[in-house]
Amino acid sequence: MTTASGTVLVVEDEESIADVLAIALRYHRFEVMIAGTVREALALAERTRPDVALLDVMLPDGDGRALGRELRERRPGLALVFLTARDSPAEIVGALGFGDDYITKPFDVDVVIARITAVLRRTRPADVLPQRPPLRYGDLELDETTYSVRRAGRTVELTPTEYALLRFLVRNGGRIVPKEQLLRHVWQYEHAPPESTVVETYISYLRRKLDALGPPVITTRRGVGYGLA
Length: 229
Description:
By secondary structure, the protein is α/β, with parallel strands linked by helices. It has helices at residues 15-27, 38-47, 64-74, 89-96, 109-123, 160-171, 179-185, 198-211; strands spanning 6-11, 30-35, 52-56, 58-59, 62-63, 79-84, 101-104, 135-137, 140-143, 148-151, 154-156, 177-178, 218-221, 225-228. Strand 1 (6-11), helix 1 (15-27) and strand 2 form a beta-alpha-beta unit.
């Protein structure tokens, strides 16, 4: 695709909200597909290859998070952004457990566009990637052509955002990377709220997956940031 910014699958059962999102996304040169139910979304995703799915959590025939899991199983590289009226920490952490971002309702359309653009910037590979040598740190190996990760020779299944976070830590070697720098480079947040826990949440996901295959590899400098042991 050479003229569009990417393809977005909008799954939202309220037509007025779906229409507003579609108009704004198309204005910013995204191709847009709209579904109002889980069934419609699965059918659309089967016929096309969206770059990102923008999912309402509460749908008339199912849960948007369950839909996200199924879409991700069918296409591991698909980016997931959740729309939710629920803003409790438990709901947010649950959405980020396998998604790439969340947006609470009511929302500003410009913020939605910015967040989708940021997610695609960190998750979607370029149309044509040159062959690049893998990144290595200790027993970690990141293949920047296939966006795959191995530890001690064993494959580690990561979401696109988890991969982007690990890649940034690997590229910084043994340095402690401040939380603000991670928010800026991995999430493209210039002014994240001070209470944001997105970095801590994703660090915990990485630790759970990496530590299952060897000794702890991510270190914490309390009050500063994170690095690799």
